[in-house]
Amino acid sequence: MEPQRIWQLYMTLTRVESTFRALKSDLGFRPIRHHGELRTQGHLFISVLACHLLAFIERSLHQQGDSRSWATLHEQLATHQRSTLSLRGEGNLLHQIRISGNPEPVHQEIYRAIDIRDPLPRNRRDLILQT
Predict the structure, then answer these.
(1) Which DSSP helix (H) or strand (E) runs through 49?
(2) Model-level pTM?
């Protein structure tokens, strides 16, 4: 086998291992404690979906010349947070306002690269609580 092909295969193995590490730790998909077949299947479906999402994000960034790993992206994006403010009003009405922090330049750079416009918009909803 040609040295370049061996290196490509090795790098593929490294990316696969990194993805599984992220699924097990950062995304919290381990351990599986489901007893029902449908719940286990759902858990596996979400895991595979998350794996595809990670691969899409990394590939999109790589196509833009960005070689950050998922661990680096996770660390950088973790500082862009969202808060929910809940207030009780008259008549058992609960007002909820979700407020997002302003994205920092590193967040904006990542969002632009994967073509996400406003990932954390401001939301407001009113709920009537049951007594």
Answers:
(1) helix 37-63
(2) 0.60
